Amino acid sequence: MLRRTWISALAASAVLGAGLLAGPALRAEPVAADTFVRQVSTDVIDAVKADKAIQAGDVGRIRALVDAKVMPYVNFQRMTASAVGPQWRGATPEQQKRMFEEFKTLMVNTYSGALTQVKDQSVVVKPLRAGADAGELVVRTEVRGKGEPIQLDYRLEKAGEGWKIYDVNVGGFWLVEAYRGQFAKDLNAGGLDALIAKLAEKNKSLAAAKS
After folding, report:
1. What is the pLDDT of residues 84-130, one digit of tens each?
2. Which CATH class is domain 2-210?
């Protein structure tokens, strides 16, 4: 369970942390999707190892980094819409904004503490199966450290000359699909407002537990 916790944290930090250190370099010229993932993965792991505040679970620092340097490299709007499902299309702009913020906060709060588990891991990117001109593709990797390697795959979409991450697969489970299943109960019971309220309550509890 502890092993799955830290690898889930790495997945979330890869989604939330794409471009943390690699951003300026990746924007300099077009890169292949597997090169993008290799560079981002390595830089995220190195960033966690080097930042004592992140290792200590400093949510404020993590959130500041996400807002300032991360979100431009992730299609988090698509992630949120996919996790909510059909009800997203009927949501008001205000509901969409609130859901976006609560979902982002949930991911930061949920995984920030587990980042302390990232120690001696490295990422191996597998050969790319898609063509060079593909607009959407999956880059498959393995995270290696002590014990058996763990599958960590990325769904990417073409974004200008670069790429954006919109989903992550941890050990066979896609992050967006997993959240969609969790969100379905509240959506069916009370709609998007009920889900937003539930996430806000959970975020308050997680924040209080860290204070």
Report:
1. 999 999 999 999 999 999 998 888 776 665 555 666 777 889 988 77
2. alpha beta
